[in-house]
Design a protein that fits this description.
Elements: E1 2-5, E2 12-18, E3 21-28, H1 35-43, E4 51-57, H2 74-87, E5 93-98, H3 100-111, E6 116-122, H4 135-140, H5 144-158, H6 161-167, H7 172-184, H8 190-196, E7 200-206, H9 215-220, E8 224-228, H10 235-238, H11 240-247
Parallel strand pairs: 3-4, 3-5, 5-6, 6-7, 7-8
Antiparallel strand pairs: 1-2, 2-4
Amino acid sequence: MNEARFDDRGSLIRWTETPGEEPARVYVHGLGSVSSAYHAHIAARAELAGRRSLFVDLPGHGISDRPEQFGYTLVDHADALAAVLDSAGLTGAELVAHSMGGAVAVVLAHRRPELVSRLVLTEANLDAPPPPTAGSSVIASYEEDEFVDGGHARVLADVGPRWAATMRLTDPRALHRSAVGLCRGSDPVVRTLLGELEVERVYLQGELSGGLEGREALEATGVRVTTVAGAGHNVMFDRPDAFAAAVARLD
């Protein structure tokens, strides 16, 4: 286990990693998730083996610290993720990021372009706010104290068992603030930032999630959008073969 300070109070963001060749791949989870649970089975596949791989838990999630005074905005998360790459001595890393983690990765690439050489985004949040039915919107609909005092338990009971398994490891206050930050988005919005980046950009959309809004405009900026047949929001679970192929540039 590795760790790096991410605020002025000494709070630590933590990650596990496997050794290998660089450029490293940095795996970033979504809201209420854990990176190793969502990506370790992908990094271990034969077509991806041999590359240095980092599985980062964002502040408030998994094994990382959960300071009560932290903001948990997209920028806050991106700066914490930058602390990981700086501590690990990485530049030009490939970021493989899911959902909220994809938005965080885009913000990081915008703020610290030297750290990122490639983005593989799985249904990353591009617009603010997300649809009202999105998990982040449901969480953000609570007042913070209301969520901590009972809303968290209700949401855990309503989500599926896979998400609940990792969400219960997320600090309720951090989860709520992260959801609020995701709903507020960035300035400019993540979609605009993604279109302006000059690194290689791949966007994976699960077929079962429906079409990607604004796909043609994104593709016009050089983003490679791939619809993964038979997959929903969690492409890495639904179609691990297709997911690994996209990460390995085999698709």
